[in-house]
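Proteins fold reproducibly. Next comes an illustrative record:
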Amino acid sequence: MEDITSTDIDEYGAPIRRFEKKVRFTNLQSSEGIRKRFNSPYRPIEKEVLYNDLSKRQVVSYCATHDVRPYNSDLIIPKGLSIKAYDQGDPNWYWGMAYDGRSVTKTYLPKSSVSPVYKNETIMSVRKNICLSKESMTLYRGQIVFVQNNSLSIDKKLTIRTETNKLVNCRLSFLEFPQKK
């Protein structure tokens, strides 16, 4: 039997098993409300992450993740089209220019329909609905994703970033370049 120390006893005086220590959370009441704090004597396991902070990466351009119809134009900006956008401080809108091969559209674009494309990323779309059980995520047919360049593994899987900045692995056969409309 191991010696029980003060870190092995919870707030009610009951001993804590070793596997419970790793995942034990305590709720603390504060003026801001309830917040969670990790209460473990063990150091967390450090996982290798491709990009820890996406905000520090260089934005090359922006991409329409949904079909966008600007309010001051009859043109539709199709999803997958690369856009030159400028953030002017508005929390909900970008000022941007989209070139669709025939004309340049200058307009305000909603931030919910536009996602940044970082350096060393390629714009692709999902070919069919995929349920990724490991990551508990579903990718839908036609969804725009951003492939991390040079991330092809031996089993033909690529690391992709979704528009919500989640990095997951996906088979190359499930991806295609966006269709031009």
